[in-house]
Amino acid sequence: xxxxxxxxxxxxxxxxxxxxxxxxxxxxxxxxxxxxxxxxxxxxxxxxxxxxxxxxxxxxxxxxxxxxxxxxxxxxxxxxxxxxxxxxxxxxxxxxxxxxxxxxxxxxxxxxxxxxxxxxxxxxxxxxxxxxxxxxxxxxxxxxxxxxxxxxxxxxxxxxxxxxxxxxxxxxxxxxxxxxxxxxxxxxxxx
Length: 191
Known about the structure:
Layout lengths: L1 H13 L7 E5 L5 E8 L3 E7 L2 E7 L8 E7 L3 E2 L3 H8 L11 E11 L4 E10 L2 E16 L6 E12 L15 E12 L3
Antiparallel strand pairs: 1-4, 1-11, 2-3, 2-11, 3-6, 4-5, 5-7, 7-8, 8-9, 9-10, 10-11
């Protein structure tokens, strides 16, 4: 009995300490993913996805141990032009009927300053999964004075090459490089 207790105590001492994480749910009402790409050299076409869900597991003592998962409803695309939105949802571009979600799952976080960092992860879009890196800014963590709920705010950017995900319609006329901007708020899950 004493040997077992001693072994358990020794194992506990040798095991790496596990940082405690707080869980946050992405707030769809205060989260938007916008994108822009070149339109025939005349201007930038701009659009957004309005339906974003997911979770952030945030470790205050070690941000690099945090993680993010997110899902964007493909059919929630909006470019302020119904015909263009229908074309983007069609099998010519994102094929929303077959690929109803664009998903992201982080694989690592690196802190580059007190309020900035990179979030690497796997982005699945148009049925293909590729690695991406987000440049992120930690905006705030605190009690939202309106909802009275603990809220985490993050901004992030990335540049994607859409043809890498098989989204090749009109590459050459329309830009292949897509600039992405994410404005995200997440609310702490009461435990």
